[in-house]
Here is the input.
Amino acid sequence: MKNPHISINQVSLSVGGRSILCDIDAQLSDRRIGIVGRNGSGKSTLARCLCGLIKPTSGKVILDGIDIYADRKQAIRKIGILFQNPDHQIIYPTVGEEIDFGLRQIGHTAAQARDATRQILTRFDTLNWLDRQTASLSQGQKQLLCLMSILAMEPDVIVLDEPFSGLDIPTRRILGDVFQSLPQTVIHITHDPEAIETYDQVLWLGAGRIQQIGSPSQVLPKFMDAMMIASGLT
Here is the structure.
């Protein structure tokens, strides 16, 4: 799978006169991209801008020539987001209905959507979840359901916004293995440098601004030093 090209062009966002993102400018084309920063640095806001869920005050996000915010119909075919809390993402009462919904949004017929839903559930050995109530799933299972819903739509890019938050260690390991095996470009938003230390490219975001872009070995040690200084540990 060819890596898509994401161009973040001078993206700024202000809410109520407060600057959240300021002149974010970056070219992203690696297969595994990490975006790291402290809580409140603007990471999740940037994730939503990348997926076209929030309109920047100024600037644009272009994915393979598509303006992600302006062309939502094409955007949902190109990029998907896995939110930090799956309860904010799940809409429908059963697993099958939840996966079907996204497929219908991109133009599948009811029959096509149900067939694709069965295929993705079979891929993850969860076909017995088809008619299961989403409310009965564990937090990790809900996160897997959200991921399957995205993968069924076959986007080129998947954004993970703190996907391990609130999960136990075994579930984190299982999902981590799934994320690593994905053929799509993955953009992983996190405050944990360990989660992205094997990635191809890292963008360090601080106070809504890019502090540094480079390889994990270039960026993460400086980020961790800054975290220690901010915590008063040096």
The radius of gyration is 18 Å.
